[in-house]
Amino acid sequence: MAIDHQATKVITGKVRLSYAKVWEPEPDDNGNLWYSTSILIPKSDKETLRKIKAAVEAAIEHGRSKWGGKIPPNLKKPLRDGDEERPDDEAYAGHYFLKAKSKNKPGIAKPIGKGADGKTKFQEITDSTEVYSGCYARVSLNFYPFDQKGNKGVAVGLNNIVKVQDGEPLAGRASIQDEFADEDFDDVIDDDEDWMN
């Protein structure tokens, strides 16, 4: 049975990116290179969650042929509850999340207004500092069944990312301003010193 790509494709509402590795691929445990990001979906975004659940069900139906005609009892589904699985992570509170990945680099852009035809126009983003863990975006995803080494489930493909808003970075490193703002540098700051220019 051919997979119905319309039934398994989702364009999200406004979501937040976490663990965004969308500029350079990183190896998995088997050495395969992937672009990937976790996607945080607010629990209040019922429409996106409805679309994701429908796409997961469509992928499961397609997977029956891979899984011997039946749905496995231990099927892995991609949508997870941030409150339950990441209780100590403030960014995940009140969100569902999933991980999306692709062997191909996702398209990354921002909306720049409407054209004469009334359709939204986009500008490609090439500056890697513009799309990061913590920024907000709308993302194009596709859901597909997998069967690898006895693990069966539904995985999420990463297609395109449209940045819609900046957000507090979720990276592990604090900014210089945050770390050093309260420190005293009077002993090294001298307006006569040439090295500061």
Describe the structure.
The chain is α+β, with helices and mostly antiparallel strands. It has a single domain (5-171), classed as OB fold (Dihydrolipoamide Acetyltransferase, E2P). Helix content is 16%, strand content 39%. Strand 2 (15-27) and strand 3 form a beta hairpin. It is globular and about 75 Å long.
The gist of it:
This protein is of the alpha+beta class. The protein contains four helices and nine strands, in the order αβββαβαβββββα.
Features:
197 residues; alpha+beta; OB fold (Dihydrolipoamide Acetyltransferase, E2P); nine-stranded mixed sheet; globular
Question: How many helices does DSSP assign?
Answer: 4
State the CATH class.
Mainly Beta
Second CATH tier, the architecture: Beta Barrel
CATH topology: OB fold (Dihydrolipoamide Acetyltransferase, E2P)
Measured on Cα atoms, how large is the radius of gyration?
Answer: 21 Å
The average pLDDT is 88
Count of distinct strands: 9
Unreliable sequence segments: none
Beta-strand content estimate: 35-45%
Major sheet description = 9 strands, mixed
List SSEs in N-to-C order: HEEEHEHEEEEEH
* Structural domain tally: 1
CATH superfamily: Nucleic acid-binding proteins
